[in-house]
């Protein structure tokens, strides 16, 4: 079971990540968001920042749909994210290891190629 502290720890372990001041969590690489707290919007009510749910980038619409269909207890989307390769993950439904994969993949989707190579080089150094 993962939580907001796991999101923060994992995101900040990646190269060139900046945390933006927010009511929840909001992480960026090269000025592009890759994982943030879910801003839940219910008609007629004020927006609520949910730190038990993370919004993150995925590869493309096909990957998004595969995750939504394959693991509906873990992943969902909302109308404001239609057409975007992002989805929401219920943190209590994933392990820290799975969250690490998701956050790292989201970072890779948003980071410029030269920064991705920094991560790849660091990973190779740790594997030795």
Describe the structure.
By secondary structure, the chain is of the alpha+beta class. The chain has a single domain (4-115), classed as Aspartate Aminotransferase, domain 1 (Alpha-Beta Complex), CATH 3.90.1150.30. Helix content is 38%, strand content 26%. It has helices at 4-12, 61-70, 96-110, 113-127; strands spanning 17-19, 26-29, 32-40, 48-57, 75-76, 86-90. A 6-stranded antiparallel β-sheet has the order 1-2-3-4-6-5. The longest helix is centred in the last third of the chain and has 15 residues, at 96-110. The relative contact order is 0.20. This is YjbR protein.
Largest sheet: 6 strands, antiparallel
Q: What order do the helices and strands follow?
A: HEEEEHEEHH
What does the radius of gyration come to? 15 Å
Strand proportion, as a percent range, falls in 25-35%
Low-confidence stretches: none
Mean pLDDT across residues: 91
Query: What is the straight-line distance between the termini?
Result: 30 Å
Strand order of the largest sheet: 1-2-3-4-6-5
Task: Fill in the keyword field for this structure.
128 residues, Aspartate Aminotransferase, domain 1, 6-stranded antiparallel β-sheet, 26% strand
